[in-house]
Amino acid sequence: MAAFDVVVIGGGPGGYAAAIRCAQKKASVALVEKADMGGTCLNTGCIPSKALLASVHFLTLARHASLMGLELGEVKANWGKMQSRKDAIVMGFRKGVTGLLQANGVKVYEGRGIVGPGGKVKIAGIGGSEEIMAKKVILATGSVPIEIGSFPFDGRTIISSTEALSLDAIPASMVIIGGGIIGCEMACVYAAVGCKVTIVEALDSLLPNEDAWVGALMTKELKKIGIDSMAGQKVTGVAVAGGGAKVSLASGTVLDAEKVLVAVGRRAVCDKETIEGLGLKLSGPAIAVNEKLETSAPDVYAIGDAVGTTYLAHGAFMEAEVAAANACGEDERMGPYYLVPRAVYTFPEVASVGRSEKKCAEMGIETYVGKANFRTNGRSVAHNEGIGEVRVIRNAADDEIMGVTMVGATVTEMIAAARALIGSKEKITEVCFPHPTVSEVLKEAWEDAFGISLHVPPRK
Ligand code: NAD
């Protein structure tokens, strides 16, 4: 029977990163994957959604060409070509991940991995099952879209983000239930290609995890690109009939839509037989872990969506580092989760890191918020991307930077730099930012947090 130092279950960002890192640390490693290599992120999440968002971004730029002094004529979306481009991108990266695993000497098993006590891993594949042995196991089994019991997914009219990424044709209309990250990103894709999109969000605003100004600004900006949104509204039922659906709200309003996308979050998953076999302690649907990402079973770690911490690929990457180190005999612990940046790839984008203004208020921290906007930034205006704002949140008592929140065209690319500010008490004047760059808005907001920005007028 083949035996390995580490067996990883699941080939998403958490699983493949953990496998490669363990191999780099000279462990013998196997990875078991029952579906496509790359997990949700690569196959039905981050990457295909970004490919479609990139296509519609180009479309929008082309439609605005006259503002730039260009005459392009009529510009149209070709949904079939957008889809095949997206699929080719996914396929390319899938091959890439498989190749990386191979290059690092990771043995890949195709099938469902079922972990039992004493390091036994059964692999149930298409052609039968086999057993391998592991000294350490890392569970990286991911998550699935949350279904609403009274109107479950049917894959045709009531769909999850998985189907929304691969519809055969552009629907005439779509109601999106949930104004979180997936809801807002998919709304941007479909609205740009001519679908009438309405988002229904149960809480008070879109992107309710961010500060209220973000939701207010996004509601206004999404409206400008044709996306209606209704916040503070509960959906009471969805009735499928005649090639579409009627979506009933608690307020009595009924919305007609060809497709209903349910985007109300994701739920951690782990194989039932593994949970039972190992007697794994759960926290809700997620596998319970400690700071070292150890589960309740000896020599078994868990990471990524399966532990329900961030539901973010880059959160899984961070957890993979810690679990891989520990599985290889080191002693690592996860850092604080509020330092994992959040990034939403809408038009405009949203990104944040650290503590929000509302979190600081809940913690009883008095803050002073530095603000700067993109409309006074030379490069942003030259790009016709003057929408949005950066806020840097300073603890008024001791000057510590608590958090940064940004809305604007390319803020997802700037949030890693903003991450470096969190916890610092430094004024930024000595840090040289190239001019003109969009990133100067971060410097302005940082300086404004100390009341010393050159380009933000003094506050009254
Ligand atoms: P989410 O948690 O971001 O948003 C779900 C939204 O649905 C929330 O705003 C919630 O208030 C709302 N909601 C819940 N029940 C509702 C109901 N019955 N009616 C109306 N609204 C309701 O979840 P998501 O957008 O589904 O995304 C799933 C996960 O995938 C998230 O954890 C997200 O972080 C991750 N994801 C990340 C990215 C990214 O990083 N760019 C992109 C897509 C998904």
Task: Please provide a written account of the structure.
The structure is a single chain. Helix 3 packs across helix 6. The chain is globular. It folds into three domains: 3-145 and 267-337, 3-Layer(bba) Sandwich (FAD/NAD(P)-binding domain); 158-264, FAD/NAD(P)-binding domain, CATH 3.50.50.60; 348-448, FAD/NAD-linked reductase, C-terminal dimerisation domain (Enolase-like, domain 1, 2-Layer Sandwich), CATH 3.30.390.30. The protein contains 13 helices and 24 strands. The model has no long low-confidence stretch (mean pLDDT 97). The strands form six sheets. Strands 1, 2, 3, 4, 5, 6 and 19 form a seven-stranded mixed beta sheet that branches. Strands 8-15-9-10-11 form a five-stranded parallel beta sheet. Strands 20-21-24-23-22 form a five-stranded antiparallel beta sheet. With 460 residues, it is α/β, with parallel strands linked by helices. The protein starts with a strand and ends in an 11-residue tail after the last helix. Nicotinamide-adenine-dinucleotide (NAD) is lined by residues 148, 177-183, 185, 200-203, 208, 235, 263-266, 311-312, 343-345.
Quickly give the CATH architecture of the largest domain. Answer: 3-Layer(bba) Sandwich
Oligomer: single chain
CATH class of the largest domain, named: Alpha Beta
- Stretches where pLDDT is under 50 for at least 5 consecutive residues are none
> How widely separated are the two ends?
75 Å
Radius of gyration: 24 Å
Strand content: 25-35%
For the record, the count of structural domains works out to 3
How many E strands? 24
Shape descriptor reads: globular
